[in-house]
Design brief:
It contains nine helices and eight strands. With about 230 residues, the protein is of the alpha+beta class.
């Protein structure tokens, strides 16, 4: 990226470093870290986070508090902090936390992000409190018993941003996403063992219900033939 963009990132990193104790206090909240650090970080990656172009809602690059219906068993609507888009198509979510939350080791924020992305069928999404920046492969079905590192493909400390910047730019910048580099990166990781698409998982769950129901029917109705049991 341009030198002036990297300088903006260095400025964010230095500002956070000099006041890290203050930013790490519980009373420094999520809204503050989003406005002071996370928004500028993604602006440095080329995204129009504040919609300075004045685009209509359906064409905005970044949607804040993007409404999302939860999967079966968890009724209601949830809202990831950011949805990054190409036109109307969502490419990835970003879930923000305040720096006082230990996203490296606390499993709850990771589960929250992965559940959002899994429901929306997004292959990658990001969890960050600016102090750390984690990328998750969200094709793994999430479980609330998973450790924080489950399905995590990358985690950086804030002081690693400058010398890993080109790596972030190559995958997550606006230009990289529009060029298709993001999609190519996703495809390059598709063969990882343990990934399972949401439709496949749902079909497997239905098959499990079918088997359980058949066993229960057979147990309670021993006179049913195999054909009658299948029909039932």
């Amino acid at each position: 990226m341009a030198t002036d963009t990297l300088e903006k990132v260095l400025d964010l990193v230095n500002r956070y470093r000099y006041n890290r104790d203050r930013y790490s206090r519980p009373d420094y909240n999520e809204t503050q870290v989003r406005r002071e650090f996370i928004d500028p970080l993604f602006e440095a990656l080329g995204w129009d986070v504040a919609n300075k172009k004045g685009l209509a809602p359906q064409y905005q690059e970044v949607i804040h508090e993007a409404a999302l219906r939860q999967s079966s068993g968890r009724p209601g609507v949830v809202a990831p902090d950011y949805a990054f888009r190409v036109g109307p198509a969502r490419k990835f979510f970003v879930e923000a936390k305040k720096p006082a939350i230990d996203i490296r080791n606390d499993p709850a924020p990771a589960f929250q992000l992965r559940r959002y992305a899994w429901t929306a069928k997004l292959p990658l999404s990001i969890l960050t409190n600016f102090a750390e920046f984690a990328v998750y492969d969200c094709r793994y079905k999430p479980s609330d018993s998973d450790p924080a590192g489950q399905a995590r493909t990358l985690i950086l400390r804030y002081d690693e941003y400058p010398h890993r910047w080109e790596e972030l730019v190559a995958i997550l910048s606006r230009d990289a996403v529009w060029r298709g580099d993001f999609d190519r990166y996703v495809e390059s990781t598709r063969a990882k063992r343990g990934t399972q698409e949401v439709d496949d998982a749902f079909l497997a769950e239905i098959e499990g219900w079918r088997v359980a129901l058949a066993r229960n029917l057979a147990l309670r109705n021993p006179r049913l033939s195999v054909r009658e049991l299948n029909y039932a």
